[in-house]
Amino acid sequence: MTLQEEMFALVAEWKSSGLTKKTFLADKPVGLPKFNYWCEKYTRHKAVSSLPSVGESGHFRELIIEDRLAEEANKVLELTTRSGLRITVFG
Q1: Domain assignment of residue 25, yes or no
Q2: Do the Cβ atoms of 89 and 78 come closer than 8 Å?
Q3: Which pLDDT tens digit goes with each residue over 25-47?
């Protein structure tokens, strides 16, 4: 088991325990600062892993870049956001 797996298991155990961090860590070989670091890392990991993957739920769309875009003054790609921001990529 890797260090990350061990620490994530410890964080999950703490979350389900209902105890404060200080009380939970009283008999554990981990200090509060190190545990706080792993709690933050665990939270970020869970947030990223809960994002939909490409193609799920229509959140991401495949872009097909046609050759004719490159012919237009070396412009490879131009995107316009809903707010009006225009992003142009030249090749």
Answers
A1: yes
A2: yes
A3: 999 999 999 999 999 999 988 88
